[in-house]
Amino acid sequence: MPRLDDLTRPPGRPARILYGGDWNPEQWPEETWAEDLRLMRRAGVTTVTLGVFSWARLEPEPGAREFGWLDRLMDLAHAHGVGVVLATPTASPPPWLGHRHPETLPRDEDGRTEWWGSRQHFAPASEAYRTHAAAITDALAARYAAHPALVMWHINNEYCTHDWGDEAARAFRTWLRTRHGTLDALNTAWGTDFWGQRYADWDEVLPPRRAHYLRNPGHVLDFRRFTSDLLLECYRAERDIVRRHTPHLPVTTNFMPFWQGQDGWAWAAEEDVVSVDVYPDPADPRTGAHENALVADLTRAEAGGGPWMVMEQAAGAVNWRPVNRPKPEGLNRLWALQAVARGADAVHYFQWRPSRQGAEKFHSGMIGHSGEHGRAYRETVRVGADLARLGPRVAGSRVPGGGIAVLHDWDSWWAGRHEGALSDRLDQGELVRAWHRALWEAGLPVTLAHPHHDLAAHPLVVLPHLYLLDDRSITALERYVAGGGHLVCGFFTGVADPDDRVRPGGTDARLRALLGIERIDEWWPLAADESTDCGTFRGGLWTEELVTAPGTEVLASHRGGPLDGRPAVLRHGRTRYLSTLPEPAALRALLTEAAHEAGVRPVLAGLPDGVEAVRRGDLLFLLHHGRDPVTVRVPGRHRDLLTGTTVDDTLTLDRFGAAVLEEHP
Ligand code: GAL
């Protein structure tokens, strides 16, 4: 299997971190191209992504092929020593496709058409779309298979369309037949006897379109699964085409970060390189840094713990928030180094140079509108120099495994978001984010994981909230704890089975036994302005009226309110159960205590506030997410690879400063 390592550690050459971004030079006069490449070289750019959204240029009318401009670009890139990550252009079909084949356009749940004029206007089940997408992909792959600039394939872009149209309906039925076998089994799985929804014929089964009132949760859940699988089928089809032409080159598709639409675990398994786009808001650098860490920990886990790729981030401002702030000086570099610290071997941006026209003309680039003397490019050069320095020591090395696993699963996320939920404030993604942030703030080594993964490698597993758990996951948790593992489990977990059927007793009996819970009588969600007093902290979002099993220790109880005197936080053997969401400092304290008990220590003790420490291979990355200079104690003698200076016991990090330390020989 081709891997990222093939590009970052080429035989006989020094290892390197890939550095570059989306390049859309077809929007510029050709004189600009050579100028771009000159500036890229100066900045240490290794790779560019070409051709994302270029379908209308490559195939201006059905069957026509206009490759001349791309030939010249590929040749020019190669002549300048820049590798090309070549995108299949299928995320933005040319207007002629929608015009001639309206069925290639997606329909929303109200039956409204998404027209061309933007991008991502394709119906993934459409035969016409697939046929044309396959043809252009095949032509592209055939033409450039032997081109020396080509280093990787980038399939489509951020697969994210949804379609409730007629072709989607047919494909959905086929998918459902595979999953359920018979219509009877489907009726059972969805519980269609409720509200008289029983299906008598497959043709009656539709995507969950606009309906009068709440839709069937099993139906909606299966449609989300189906949509993820359908898009994955589109990815696979293009991947298989390019693989036939270039079996030696890695293939990726860029994920949106921590996003509901695709089952990241299933998708990553189909890629040679796992890549992700990450756009935290620079207006809040601390929250942004956490977002980076979360996305990195998830992407690294999806990549099996090995190197992964930042396919897109912004050098400065994006242009899709209500107010779009640039990155203050130093923040771009800090966040690039943070990704590398957490396992990235490739740092790419959207985009090299901002366009002068089109919807993203105010989106930042590695070189800004102010040009080669502007701050954006100056910082691009600096980042490139840092990555070039780190490459030989860093590329291919691994962030140590073990540590704390935060469990996350898409099936459960989807099921929990049903419109008939007890609280629309409850979102697995937000809970994973809150718990991960607590661990990140505590400086503990952490990764994300799925309950089916090998949990035994982790002394502590935390499970913020998995509404839906299959039997295999429950057994895995039982075995994990029986085998000596420590578990912290959050509320409203193990409530549903894979058909979104409530487990007997409300919460699975095996899970209750594991956590020392006799029963949960009521779930009591809290409104945004409500909280519960638990003595030493306040809890929000959720509470439960629960009865503990004999022998379970109550660590905190509710004081006042409807659950006065009832247990809120439990300990039972090596498990803890949180029936509410403690405020951030309390959650951090609670998880830190559990980590301590499980023998997991912070990466570096005694760090000043805002400093993140991450180990990768035998290096220690120190990243300062604050603005005021801080002094960090690092016992021993080290050398900072970024500056070449020797560090004896302490070092000072300035605003958004970073150091990458190796033990001094
Ligand atoms: C990404 C997309 C890019 C660009 C970027 C802007 O979602 O893949 O093409 O639009 O956002 O932030």
UniProtKB/TrEMBL annotation:
<dbReference type="Pfam" id="PF08533">
    <property type="entry name" value="Glyco_hydro_42C"/>
</dbReference>
<feature type="domain" description="Glycoside hydrolase family 42 N-terminal">
    <location>
        <begin position="22"/>
        <end position="389"/>
    </location>
</feature>
<dbReference type="GO" id="GO:0004565">
    <property type="term" value="F:beta-galactosidase activity"/>
</dbReference>
<dbReference type="Pfam" id="PF02449">
    <property type="entry name" value="Glyco_hydro_42"/>
</dbReference>
<comment type="similarity">
    <text>Belongs to the glycosyl hydrolase 42 family.</text>
</comment>
<dbReference type="InterPro" id="IPR003476">
    <property type="entry name" value="Glyco_hydro_42"/>
</dbReference>
<dbReference type="InterPro" id="IPR013529">
    <property type="entry name" value="Glyco_hydro_42_N"/>
</dbReference>
<keyword id="KW-0326">Glycosidase</keyword>
<protein>
    <recommendedName>
        <fullName>Beta-galactosidase</fullName>
        <ecNumber>3.2.1.23</ecNumber>
    </recommendedName>
</protein>
<dbReference type="InterPro" id="IPR013780">
    <property type="entry name" value="Glyco_hydro_b"/>
</dbReference>
<feature type="domain" description="Beta-galactosidase C-terminal">
    <location>
        <begin position="610"/>
        <end position="663"/>
    </location>
</feature>
<keyword id="KW-0378">Hydrolase</keyword>
<dbReference type="InterPro" id="IPR017853">
    <property type="entry name" value="GH"/>
</dbReference>
<dbReference type="InterPro" id="IPR013739">
    <property type="entry name" value="Beta_galactosidase_C"/>
</dbReference>
<feature type="region of interest" description="Disordered">
    <location>
        <begin position="93"/>
        <end position="112"/>
    </location>
</feature>
<feature type="domain" description="Beta-galactosidase trimerisation">
    <location>
        <begin position="404"/>
        <end position="600"/>
    </location>
</feature>
<dbReference type="InterPro" id="IPR029062">
    <property type="entry name" value="Class_I_gatase-like"/>
</dbReference>
<feature type="compositionally biased region" description="Basic and acidic residues">
    <location>
        <begin position="100"/>
        <end position="112"/>
    </location>
</feature>
<dbReference type="InterPro" id="IPR013738">
    <property type="entry name" value="Beta_galactosidase_Trimer"/>
</dbReference>
<dbReference type="Pfam" id="PF08532">
    <property type="entry name" value="Glyco_hydro_42M"/>
</dbReference>
